[in-house]
Amino acid sequence: MTKRISSEEIMSSDSFYRRNLINCLSGYKSLNLIGTQDSAGITNLALFSQVFHIGANPPMVGILFRPNTVIRHTLDNIMETGFFTMNHVTSEFYKEAHWTSARWEESEFEATGIAPEFLDGFKAPFVRDSPVRLACSLLETQTLKVNQTILLIGSIDSIYIDERGLRADGSLDLGSLGTVTVAGLDDYFVGKRLGRLSYAKSDKMPEEI
Amino acid sequence: MTKRISSEEIMSSDSFYRRNLINCLSGYKSLNLIGTQDSAGITNLALFSQVFHIGANPPMVGILFRPNTVIRHTLDNIMETGFFTMNHVTSEFYKEAHWTSARWEESEFEATGIAPEFLDGFKAPFVRDSPVRLACSLLETQTLKVNQTILLIGSIDSIYIDERGLRADGSLDLGSLGTVTVAGLDDYFVGKRLGRLSYAKSDKMPEEI
């Protein structure tokens, strides 16, 4: 049976229900731990599901930051230093990744036991055990007029990939890399492959490649 | 072994390799068919993986449109009518969904065999067999200065959900709904659940709920 929920019902539902529902509506989401440090070198690690690529030439990523979050160390650190890392989560440490969203006095690396790693002099910490890691620099921020959400755009300066997941055509095999995805705020999954499909042409149905 | 790819190597790689790689970097992506029609009532259906929620109060979604796409019926139709639908893809029709991205003269509904459905007088077509469907209205567009990508923001006016996937707390069970996710441009997956985790608190590790 299909249930219809109107905008009036959405708005009159309690905030917990509404938040759960709205966060699930787009489907599975990209999940990344974002690593930063402040100018004194204190590290921070935070889990984000509102991350997306903005372009390939030059390579850029976008991250959305909610306006009314009380503690925004990640955004503050990026604005202060200009640098951040993005790190895929695997099933080996997805519980620790979720745990980074608790309120911590100390660095989330120490608190949760996720091991940091510094690479090639880059001024933000990576997650040592992540199979896909990006070194990124702040390009610009824009505030969305509709609700003061902040869209941060970064350039991708270097990529560190576990070689077993990098195919000859440049694509990543997220299945073999063990990348985790999230539904809503707290429901974690790995991928079970249906198929990789051929480039879509009108003369025949796409096939598995 | 970890492979490092520098920004110089990214930029000097061929465009096919670069496009594959950059499209995979954020991880699994939200996958939705967007249904629109023009003012003459000609329908269009297009597959998007750059869709995300922007806020829950009021509920809003964002979609990114690349600036240099030659044919942009979806964006043109939304600008013309103000309306669009978002529809989750399932394993039952993911090949047809991929096929919508071929160049078609006729409507992608007719061409691929995906059945449209009109609901409650809304002026855009839904995908009949999709378990999660949103009726959305255009709120605004912004052009990103960095590369002229267009960010379209829509309000969610009503939601149609297959009831078996709607939990009492408002969250969706994307596993039982059969929602599909995509890696890169062409690699399709369903979710295999790791666990749903308790709200993160600093005094103890999150547990499965």
TrEMBL record, chains A, B:
Cofactor(s) the record lists: FMN
A single GO molecular function term of this UniProt record: oxidoreductase activity, acting on the CH-NH group of donors, NAD or NADP as acceptor
Alphabetical keyword list: Flavoprotein, FMN
Keyword Electron transport: no
Keyword ATP-binding: no
Similarity annotation: Belongs to the flavoredoxin family.
InterPro entries, sorted: Flavin_Rdtase-like_dom, Split_barrel_FMN-bd
Boundaries of every Flavin reductase like domain copy: 25-168
Highest taxon of the lineage: Bacteria
Protein name (record): NADH-FMN oxidoreductase RutF, flavin reductase (DIM6/NTAB) family
Gene3D superfamilies: Electron Transport, Fmn-binding Protein, Chain A (2.30.110.10)
